[in-house]
Amino acid sequence: MTTTENLTAEQVRERVAEQLRRSRARSTALTDAVDEDDLVRQHSRLMSPLVWDLAHIGNQEELWLVRDVGGRDPVRSDIDELYDAFQHARADRPALPLLKPREARTYVREVREKVFDVLERTPLEGRRLVQDGFAFGMIVQHEQQHDETMLATHQLRTGTPVLHAEDPPRAAEPLPAREVLVPGGEFTMGTSTEPWALDNERPAHAAHVDAFFIDTVPVSNGEYLAFIDAGGYDDPRWWSEVGWAHRQGANLVAPRFWERGPAGWHRTRFGVVEQVPLDEPVVHVCFHEAQAYANWAGKRLPTEVEWEKAARFDPATGRSRRWPWGDEDPGPEHANLGQRHLRPAPVGSYPAGASALGVRQLMGDVWEWCDSDLRPYPGFAAFPYREYSEVFFGGDYKMLRGGSFGTDASAVRGTFRNWDHPIRRQIFAGFRLARDARPDEVR
Ligand SMILES: [Fe+2]
Q: Is the pTM value of this prediction over 0.70?
């Protein structure tokens, strides 16, 4: 959401209502696309049954908006424990006495009706939780995040395709440069002004980077294939020690969902088997694969600080933009976000979404692995609860930035931080490369 400084409470309410409707339309589409049997089945041990995600979306909404913000009686306090993500690992969720699909749908509808009433009657000021509609924005983002998770479940599901979308547009303009220099020095990282930014993105602070080069586009399938063909998966030189152990243990040989056929590599994408498109960003690779590719290519992954500077720093003004292209919210010309398409766009797409330094596709298409651990920014304060971010600090996570084609614009920002285990491949993650600048390359 844009900065709400100039919005009246009524305008904030309208935006909240619109975002709540959009996220619910998406959740409904993702769960109505399959039959009852598919909804309750676990398509992968990595994922919850879709019906768990649906009721969990409703339960979080009830906890925060109906009970906390609204001060209303519980709709169903008997199910809180079932849908507490910290109580049950994903692998164990199918065995729980979960709400049946019909019950889950009724439940989320009942909660939502009460939430619209709460939205009408709650002054959006006074309490930090409701200032600028924050709690509502947090719940919108939560639902959209689970929608992306449900989209990943759809990708893991076997059977005939049930999701359909147009292909993304192809860039007409050629790429001016393969890599660009990001100047060294300080820039403003994080935010203290985005009304719906989450605790881990706060506060805005000065961060320093040495001058470095970053690729203007993510690594493509075609480039990644060259790594496979060169024996990259069989050469421990390119892998970290832990990465190599994982490559061996999990028997990784190619991105997830790829299969080698007599006529080359194929992949399965939401139930469709197709030739691997060479000009699309590679997706469904884990951090270790990204890092091995980077070593083989003689480069490295960017750190999270570097990624954000490449995305937000405007050398003309010295300030950090909200988004790579400027301060206005994403439109379809800027980025492949919001599940409008069911695939990343070819590398070099979205010239209108380029950063001030000329880096493309930072938002949307594929989440980008960064070579950084999850750490709090200086001045971090947990809000509204420790379980949002703080309990994950210092864990076995690597950072992911920028969102994917399956990320909604309401659930990502120039400052948005995502993280996951370095072995995860079911998420829509790829990467781009960076390298140090040599002294003679820095003006
Ligand atoms: Fe959740």
A: yes
